[in-house]
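Quick log. Single chain, no ligands specified.
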Amino acid sequence: MPIPVNTIFISLLSALLLSGSLAWAQSINLNVEPLAHIDTTATVIDGAEFEDLPLGAHDPSDEFVLQGLESRFTFNSPYLDGTLIWNFFYDGDEWGEENEEAYLTFPTAPGNAILRGGRMLNRFGVLNNTHLHGREWRDVPLVLTSFLGEEGLTTEGADLTVPLPSSAFASVPVLRDASIGFTLGYGVAREHDDHGHGDEDEDHDDELEDDHREDEHGHDEDEGPVFDDGLLTARLAGAFAPNEFHRLLAGVSLALGEDEDNGDLTVGGIDLTYHWSEFGYDAGRELNWSSEFLLRDSDAGGQQFGAYSRALLRFPNPFGVGLRVGVLEGDHTQDTETSWRISPLLAWYPPTLPNATVRLQGNHIELPQGGDAQTVNLGFSIGLGGLGGFGSGGGGHEGHNH
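-> predicted structure:
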């Protein structure tokens, strides 16, 4: 399929108009910042075909893919902030594009609360609202793809994050100095066949839509119930840093809604993240470890459990080594077995390219349909533009919510 020239032209024109508005923006105390990030990956596979793998929407699905050319435009004002994130990608067969997020933030809500409205990645767990450029591993954990959908849990609606007063936890010593917040949101779940390969005619029947999804994503999305239409989300999260060397984050997340067959669907999770810095705020070795444990309960498939745990040790020389282990319980309604994936990682952060990362990742996976497969991914990421607010290719950003 040819490169979507019209889409790219319109996007570049939009960027030009935004850049041209800087003088006007400064006159009314606005800040407009265009940013971009590129992620490419080459993959070799053994023991299976790409279409046999349980993949997220932008996981490596061919021998060479452009996982994303993410462009982000933000503006800030005293009363209103805006964010637009657009992604172009090449999946090995054709080019595509999609609007990942487009929302407004009201920074002057009472009580230091944060109110957002628009299309957003939900504040659910550690990784769901982390964009591609912020992930160290080149693919999404098995449980997140299965429970939250190939594109992640994205809704068009609103959420409100409220910081809880520290005085409420004064009687609990370990929480006395913690920063704790509660998020409540409601919206319509993003359609799971909306992957940006062009608008589909609304009168396509279900069979054609299923074939379309299999062709584009490399596998059938009907691997388990996912959210459809309206859903309610909630998250309670806290951060505790006893000193500059250690930081602990923990959270509880819940999503309530219906699946594509109008059956009740609930996904709940708990997560824990630990960060260690050898010399505190100065350069040195850093360790990031996090785990998520999720449970899905649905009318269609009953209860199903999944989890992952990952750790990344970064050296100042500058290399990083990591390991991720994930499990997804089998689903009897889909006749699948419990699957495992073990993923070692070696990362190099070139000193001459501070916004770039080269990653070598291996995967050994016990497939849900039986059998096993191995893949090796070689990825390159680089950030372009004013990446101070967008994240960078350098390690340690995975799991940082925005």
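Helices lie at 5-20, 22-27, 142-148, 206-217.
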